[in-house]
Design a protein that fits this description.
The complex is a heterodimer of chains A (about 725) and B (about 300). With about 725 residues, chain A is of the alpha+beta class. In chain A, about 60% of the residues lie in helices and about 10% in strands. Chain A contains 19 helices and 14 strands. In chain A, the strands form three sheets. In chain A, strands 5, 6, 7, 8, 9, 10, 11 and 12 form an eight-stranded antiparallel beta sheet that branches. By secondary structure, chain B is α/β, with parallel strands linked by helices. Chain B has one domain: 3-Layer(aba) Sandwich (Rossmann fold), CATH 3.40.50. The chains are: A alpha+beta (about 725), B alpha/beta (about 300). At the A-B interface, helix 15, helix 16 and helix 19 of A face helix 4, strand 7, helix 6 and helix 9 of B.
Chain lengths: ~725, ~300
C-alpha cells in the first residue's frame, strides 16, 4: 500500500514537474549555430550553410554508405571530433531552422560527420520574430528606406547608397522610387533598426487606435442602420399589429406570481411548522414581482412588434440611405488616413541575409528587390550576443508577450491574453450559473422534499448525470441551448400556436391554477383527506408548469429579440457562444455541487436544527442561519471542485462556443460589459488546437507546454483555494481559530 | 383546576381497570402491581396527589396520547405544571418523558408519522389547535437539550438568536437582553469579555448555561429542560442545578431527568412515568418520602428501573 502511494505521488510530481520545466523553459532564448556542410554531404536543399537552434543530439544506426564515408573521412583525418559517439555509432543533431517561407521544413537533422567544420556561433546571427509566417533566422544586413519622387525626377543621384528607378503604381501611374540602403554594421546598426522599429510600432498603435475608436464604431453604426431597416421591413411584412401582446405578458406574469404564491402557501400549510405570516409576505413579494414585470413589459415592450406603416417604411428607407451615405463618406476619409499610415509603413524595410543560399530574405531571397518591411517585425534578438542578464530580459519579454499579447501566426506564436480572459469569463459565468442552482436543488432535496421513491429517483438521476461523458453534454448543449433555446431568443418560436388556441391555453392554465390552489389549501387544512388532495395538487402544479412552458414556447406574439439579424442568417444567440458554453458546463458540474451540498447539509447535526426550532425559528430561518452556515465549508469545497472541473473541461465547449481565434474578447469596457453571445477562446481548447491542428505542431510545442502550465496553474490554484477556504471555515466552526 | 379524569372516581372497566388504593400501599399483597398492568397494556389511572391538582396551571396537559406510526408512545397523560415551580419528570428509559417534553413545544411535528390526540393548554390557550401558530408557540417556550448545542456563532449571537429571528436589530436592545440572560444564567462574569468569541470554545458546562441563557432571553412562559445535566461533569451539574433553582423564581420549569437526586434537589413537583403512562404525580417531598404507590417507592429508592 505504501508502494502504491509512493507510485501515485511520484507520478503526480513527475506530471507537474515536467509541465513546469517544459512550460517555464519554453521562452528561454537558445543560441544559434552556423552549420556548414561538407561539399560531398548529401542534402535535400541547395546551400552549404544555415543557421539553426540546436534542439537535441542522438546516435543513429549507420547505413553501409555512412560507414564507408566514416572510414574514408577517418582515413583522410577529416572526421570531426564528436562525429562518432563512444559506442562507435555516428551522431546527428536536430536543428530548428525556421525560415518556413524559404521552402524548407522548420526542423532539420544533420549528421555531425557531414559538417565541414565545428559549428560557429556568429554574433550577428539574429532571431527575427515576424507577425506572420513564424520566425526567421538570418543576419540583418541593411535598413532600406524608399521614397517616392514625382515622375520625371532624374534617375541619377549622388546620395550615398541610393538608387532611383521608375516604377508603375497599382493604378497605372508612374513615378520614381528612390531606394536608400543603409548598412547596419555593429556600431550604428542596432540603433538605427531599433529607431525604425519604434517608429513602426508607433504607426501600428496609431492604426489600431483609429480602427478601434473610429473605423469599427462607424461600421457598427452602419450595421445598426441596416438592422433597423431590416427590422422595419420584417415588421412591415408581418402585417396585423398584435395588440394583445402586453395583456398576454401580464397574464403570464400574474399567473406565475399567483401560482408561486399558492405553492408557497401550500408548502407552509402542509408543513405545520410554518406560520401564515411568511407565506403572506412571500405572496406579496410575488405579486410585487409580477407587477414589476408587468411594468417593465409595458415600458420596455421587449416583443417590439408594432406594425410599420408603408409610409414610415419609406421614410426610414430614405433616412437609411442618407445616413449610410454620410457614414460611408466618413469611413472613406478614415480609410485614407489609414492607407497613408500603411504607406509610411511600407517605406521602411530590412534586408536579411540567409547563409544557406547567400541570398537575401525573406520574400525573394535571391535578389535584393523585396526586403522585409520593418512593420512586419515583432522583435529582433541576437541570442549569441546576449549576456545572461540580456537573456533573462529577452525571456521576460517573451513571457510578457505570451501572457498579455495577442496571438499571431495562427496562434502558434504570440500571446494568450484573449484565451486567459475567455477561460476566466467562462469560469465566472459557470460559477454564477451552477452554484445557486446546485445549492437550491440540494436544499430542496434534503430539507423540503419528502424522502420517498421520487427523491431517490432524482438522486440516482443526479448521480448518473455525473457519469455521462462530457462530450454528450456538448452535443446536448449544441442541440438544445444553441439551436433550440438560442433560436427561440433570436427569432421567436419556429412554429407558434394559433392565437385562439393560445388564449384557450391561457384560460386553461388559469383554471388549473385555481383548482391546484384550492386543492392545496384543502390538503393543508384537513389532515385526514390531505394525502390525495396533496398528490392531486402536486400533479396539477406539474401540469401548470408544463402549460406555462408551452405558452412561452409557442407564444404567437413573440417574434424574438434579434429577428432581423436572424432573418439575415446572422444568428445572435442562435449560434455557439459563451453563455451556452457556461450553461452546458453548469449542467456538467451540477451533480458535483448537488452531492457535496447534500452531504454538507446532512452533516449539520439534528440537535442544532431542533434547538433552532425550539427557539421559535421557522424552517427557512433555521436553514439560513444554522444549516447553511454550518454546511458552508462543504458547499464551498464542492462548488470549487466543480468549478475547477468545469474550467478544465474541453470536449463540451468545442461544440458550444470555443473557437480557434476570437477577434474580440468576451468582455468589454462598454455596457453591458460582457458579450454573452460571443464565441471565445479557451485554454483547454487552445492546447488541443496548438497540439493537433497547428500547421507546424513541432514548432508550436513550446507554446503547448506553456499553455498547459497556465491551465494547470489555474486549476491547481482553484483547488488550493478550496482547501484553504474549507480549513478556514471548518476552523471557525469548531472554534479552533 | 383539576385534571377532569382524576376528579371523578372511575368505574371499574371490563378490561380489568386497576385502581391503586392510595390509602394502603402495602396492605394488599394479592393486588396486581400497577407496573404489571401497564406492561400488560391495560389502562391505569394516574395517582395524582391532592396538592398537585392546580386550579391555574401554566401548562395543562389533558389526556394526551401520541403515536409514532403504529406504536403508541404516550397514553392518556394528564398533568399540570404550577406557576414559578419546578416540575420534574422521572422514569426509566423509554418511558416517554422526553417525548412528552418535546410535545409541549411541538418539536415532534418535525418527525414524520406522528399522530396525537388530547390537548395541552399553555396559559389557557391550546397548543394543538389547528389555528395555533407553531412558531409563535415555540417563542413562548424555551427549551434546553440533553447535549449542549450552541450554534456555530459567537456567544452574543447565540444568546440573541431568538430575538434576531424575531427581527430585532437594535444593538442596544440586543446587548441589554443578552446581558440580562447571561446574568440570569450565571455565566455573565465568565464570558462578558469575549462575547464575540465562538461559543464552541466554551466548556461543556458553560455551553449548557449558554443554552439556558438562549432559552430564557425571550422571556418564555415555560422553560423545558430535557436532561440538561446528563452530559456534564458533577461540578458543572451543580452549577446548572443552582441555576435552575435561581431561575425558578421567575420561570415555570419543566425538567426531565434520569437522576433521582437531582429531581429531589431541584424540583417542587415530580411526575413518575412508566412506559408512556403517568403513574404518580405529586409534590417532590411526598413522592420521594411518602409515595402513594409501592411501585413509585421502589423506583425512587432504586429497587427497580
Amino acid at each position: 500500500m505504501g508502494l502504491a502511494l509512493v507510485l501515485a505521488l511520484t507520478l503526480i510530481v513527475l506530471l507537474v514537474g515536467l509541465i513546469a520545466v517544459r512550460g517555464l523553459g519554453a521562452f528561454w532564448p537558445g543560441r544559434l549555430d552556423l552549420v556548414t556542410l561538407r561539399a560531398d554531404a548529401p542534402r535535400d536543399l541547395p546551400g552549404d550553410a544555415f543557421f539553426g537552434q540546436p534542439v537535441r543530439e542522438e546516435a543513429f544506426d549507420p547505413t553501409s554508405a555512412d560507414e564507408a564515408r566514416i572510414a574514408s573521412l577517418r582515413a583522410a583525418g577529416e572526421l570531426l571530433p564528436g562525429a562518432v559517439g563512444p559506442d562507435g555509432r555516428p551522431r546527428r543533431r536536430l536543428y530548428y531552422v525556421a525560415n518556413r517561407d524559404a521552402g524548407q521544413e522548420p526542423f532539420r537533422w544533420v549528421a555531425v560527420m557531414d559538417m565541414a567544420a565545428p559549428t560557429l556561433r556568429p554574433t550577428d546571427a539574429a532571431w527575427i520574430d515576424r507577425r506572420e509566417w513564424g520566425p526567421w533566422l538570418g543576419v540583418v544586413e541593411a535598413l532600406v528606406e524608399d521614397r517616392e519622387l514625382p515622375a520625371g525626377t532624374p534617375l541619377e543621384t549622388d546620395a550615398p547608397g541610393a538608387t532611383r528607378e521608375p516604377v508603375t503604381g497599382p493604378r497605372g501611374e508612374t513615378h520614381v522610387r528612390e531606394r536608400r540602403v543603409m548598412p547596419l554594421d555593429d556600431d550604428s546598426g542596432p540603433g538605427a533598426l531599433r529607431e525604425a522599429m519604434r517608429a513602426a510600432a508607433a504607426r501600428r498603435a496609431e492604426i489600431r487606435r483609429i480602427e478601434r475608436t473610429e473605423r469599427i464604431p462607424l461600421d457598427a453604426r452602419i450595421a445598426a442602420w441596416d438592422e433597423r431597416l431590416a427590422d422595419a421591413r420584417l415588421r412591415a411584412s408581418r402585417g396585423a399589429p398584435p395588440r394583445l401582446a402586453w395583456p398576454a405578458f401580464a397574464a403570464i406574469s400574474l399567473a406565475g406570481a399567483a401560482g408561486w404564491a399558492g405553492f408557497a402557501l401550500f408548502r407552509n400549510r402542509a408543513h405545520h411548522a410554518e406560520p401564515a405570516a411568511p407565506a403572506r409576505t412571500r405572496a406579496l413579494a410575488c405579486a410585487i414581482a409580477g407587477s414589476c414585470l408587468l411594468l417593465w413589459a409595458v415600458l420596455e415592450r421587449p416583443w417590439h412588434a408594432g406594425a410599420v406603416a408603408p409610409e414610415d417604411l419609406d421614410a426610414l428607407t430614405r433616412a437609411h440611405a442618407r445616413e449610410v451615405a454620410a457614414l460611408t463618406d466618413a469611413g472613406e476619409a478614415i480609410d485614407l488616413r489609414l492607407s497613408a499610415l500603411r504607406a509610411a509603413d511600407a517605406r521602411f524595410s530590412v534586408i536579411i541575409r540567409e547563409p544557406r543560399t547567400g541570398g537575401f530574405a525573406p520574400r525573394d531571397y535571391s535578389t535584393r528587390t523585396d526586403p522585409l518591411p520593418v512593420s512586419a517585425i515583432v522583435r529582433v534578438t541576437h541570442p549569441n550576443r546576449l549576456t545572461l542578464l540580456g537573456r533573462a530580459g529577452a525571456y521576460l519579454d517573451r513571457c510578457t508577450e505570451f501572457l498579455f499579447g495577442a496571438p499571431r501566426n495562427a496562434n502558434q506564436e504570440g500571446g494568450v491574453w484573449g484565451v486567459i480572459v475567455g477561460t476566466v469569463t467562462l469560469t465566472l459565468l459557470l460559477t454564477v450559473a451552477v452554484v445557486p442552482l446546485g445549492v437550491i436543488a440540494a436544499l430542496y432535496l434534503r430539507e423540503y422534499a419528502r424522502q420517498n421513491l421520487f427523491t431517490s429517483l432524482v438522486r440516482i438521476a443526479v448521480n448518473n448525470l455525473a457519469g455521462v461523458p462530457s462530450i454528450v453534454y456538448g452535443v446536448f448543449g449544441l442541440g438544445f441551448f444553441c439551436y433550440t433555446l438560442g433560436a427561440w431568443v433570436d427569432s421567436g418560436p419556429r412554429v407558434s400556436a394559433p392565437r385562439g388556441a393560445w388564449w384557450l391555453m391561457v384560460l386553461l392554465l388559469g383554471v388549473v391554477l385555481l383548482v391546484a390552489w384550492s386543492l392545496a389549501l384543502a390538503a393543508a387544512s384537513r389532515a385526514e383527506a390531505s394525502r390525495w388532495a396533496r398528490r392531486g395538487a402536486l400533479v396539477l402544479w406539474g401540469v401548470c408548469a408544463a402549460l406555462a412552458l408551452a405558452l412561452i414556447a409557442w407564444n404567437p406574439y413573440f417574434h424574438g429579440f434579434f429577428a432581423a439579424r436572424a432573418a439575415g442568417n446572422q444568428p445572435t444567440f442562435g449560434g455557439r457562444g459563451i453563455l451556452w458554453s457556461a450553461l452546458t458546463l453548469a449542467l456538467l458540474t451540477l451533480p458535483v455541487v448537488i452531492v457535496a451540498t447534500e452531504e454538507a447539509i446532512a452533516g449539520v447535526p439534528r440537535s442544532l436544527r431542533e434547538s433552532s426550532y425550539g427557539c421559535g425559528a421557522s424552517k427557512w430561518q433555521t436553514i439560513r442561519r444554522v444549516v447553511l452556515p454550518g454546511a458552508m465549508p462543504g458547499i464551498m469545497t464542492g462548488a470549487i471542485l466543480a468549478i475547477s472541473r468545469g474550467a478544465g473541461e474541453v470536449a463540451p465547449i468545442m461544440f458550444v462556443g470555443a473557437t480557434k481565434i476570437a477577434s474580440k474578447l468576451p468582455v468589454s469596457g462598454e455596457f453591458p460589459f460582457i458579450r454573452l453571445e460571443a464565441q471565445f477562446m479557451h485554454l483547454g481548447f487552445h492546447i488541443y488546437d496548438l497540439g493537433f491542428q497547428a500547421k507546424d505542431a513541432e514548432a508550436a510545442r513550446p507554446l503547448v507546454w506553456a499553455t498547459t502550465l497556465l491551465l494547470v496553474l489555474i486549476v491547481l490554484s482553484l483547488n488550493l483555494a478550496a482547501v484553504i477556504i474549507r480549513s478556514r471555515l471548518r476552523g471557525r466552526r469548531t472554534g479552533a481559530f | 383546576m383539576t385534571v377532569p379524569d382524576a376528579a371523578i372516581p372511575p368505574a371499574p372497566s371490563p378490561r380489568g381497570h386497576v385502581r391503586a388504593d392510595p390509602g394502603a400501599p402495602s396492605s394488599a399483597p394479592a393486588r396486581r402491581s400497577v407496573l404489571d398492568a401497564i406492561r400488560a397494556g391495560e389502562h391505569v389511572e394516574a395517582e395524582v396527589h391532592r396538592d398537585a391538582r392546580f386550579a391555574d396551571p401554566v401548562l395543562d396537559i389533558r389526556s394526551f396520547c401520541l403515536h409514532y406510526g403504529p406504536t403508541q408512545a404516550l397514553f392518556d397523560v394528564s398533568l399540570g405544571a404550577a406557576r414559578n415551580r419546578v416540575t420534574a419528570i422521572i422514569g426509566p428509559s423509554g418511558c416517554g418523558k422526553s417525548t412528552l417534553l418535546r410535545s409541549v413545544n411541538r418539536l415532534n411535528d418535525l418527525v414524520d408519522g406522528v399522530r396525537i390526540t388530547g390537548d395541552m393548554l399553555l396559559n389557557g390557550s391550546s397548543i394543538y389547535d389547528r389555528r395555533t401558530d407553531v412558531i409563535h408557540l415555540r417563542k413562548r417556550l424555551g427549551m434546553v437539550f440533553q447535549k449542549p448545542n450552541p450554534f456555530p456563532m459567537s456567544i452574543f449571537e447565540n444568546v440573541v438568536y431568538p430575538l434576531r429571528i424575531d427581527g430585532e436589530r437594535r444593538r442596544s436592545v440586543l446587548l441589554g437582553a443578552c446581558e440580562r440572560a447571561l446574568r440570569a444564567s450565571a455565566i455573565w462574569d465568565e464570558v462578558k469579555d469575549r462575547l464575540s468569541a465562538s461559543a464552541l470554545r466554551l466548556s461543556g458546562g458553560q455551553q449548557q448555561r449558554l443554552c439556558i441563557a438562549r432559552a430564557i432571553v425571550a422571556d418564555p412562559e415555560v422553560l423545558l429542560l430535557d436532561e440538561p445535566c446528563s452530559a456534564l461533569d458533577p461540578i458543572a451539574t451543580l452549577r446548572v442545578e443552582e441555576l435552575i433553582h435561581e431561575i425558578s423564581a421567575r420561570y415555570t420549569v419543566l425538567i426531565v431527568t434520569h437522576n433521582m437526586q437531582q429531581a429531589m434537589r431541584v424540583s417542587d413537583f415530580t411526575a413518575f412515568m412508566y412506559l408512556g403512562r403517568l403513574v404518580e404525580y405529586g409534590p417532590t417531598a411526598e413522592i420521594f418520602q411518602r409515595p402513594h404507590l409501592p411501585e413509585t417507592e421502589q423506583y425512587v429508592t432504586g429497587r427497580f428501573g
